[in-house]
């Protein structure tokens, strides 16, 4: 492994740093974007139970807001529910925009690494090829084995860049899809909250609150 890194030259360093950053972002986002953490399935039922039992207080609202991203969105709506449906919806949308920004944290960086890593690898290969042919021109014609060995070493950075870029592209798309699914789930829960608090419809939370 060390020989391959040496063969790739100094451009292997940024590629290795990209691989470390990619792994860190993927692990952190997979842990952070768990459904149970972002949008707990029974949170809305618990909130509605507190409202029906008239146990909703400033402390309870603070606990709901701190419990999860969905809790932050619901708490924003509850805190302004007395001002009418439109104000409640506006507050929910403002809170949701902040939550979505947090859910998408580091994903732009992951996408940048996915695009940059193969380019770094290609640059390393081009530099290596230039050095190889410059050396051959100075020392006369080289034989085929020497040329093949030099080209093989020059291609190390391209291979390393692709090894970093392929999982980065995959998880970038996967995590964006995960964020979209979580946002849709939170939007549905927020809509239910607005409708039941403003008295537009009855929602049966029996199964939710029992769980």
UniProtKB/TrEMBL annotation:
Membrane topology, as annotated, equals: Multi-pass membrane protein
Segments crossing the lipid bilayer:
12-31, 106-130, 150-171
- Would I find Nucleotide-binding among this entry's keywords? no
The MotA/TolQ/ExbB proton channel domain is annotated at: 67-187
- Keyword list, A-Z: Cell membrane, Membrane, Protein transport, Transmembrane, Transmembrane helix, Transport
Checking InterPro entries in the record gives:
ExbB/TolQ_transport, MotA_ExbB_proton_chnl
Origin, by domain of life? Bacteria
Concerning its family, UniProt says: Belongs to the exbB/tolQ family.
Q: What's the protein called, per UniProt?
A: MotA/TolQ/ExbB proton channel family protein
Q: Which organism is it from?
A: Zestomonas insulae
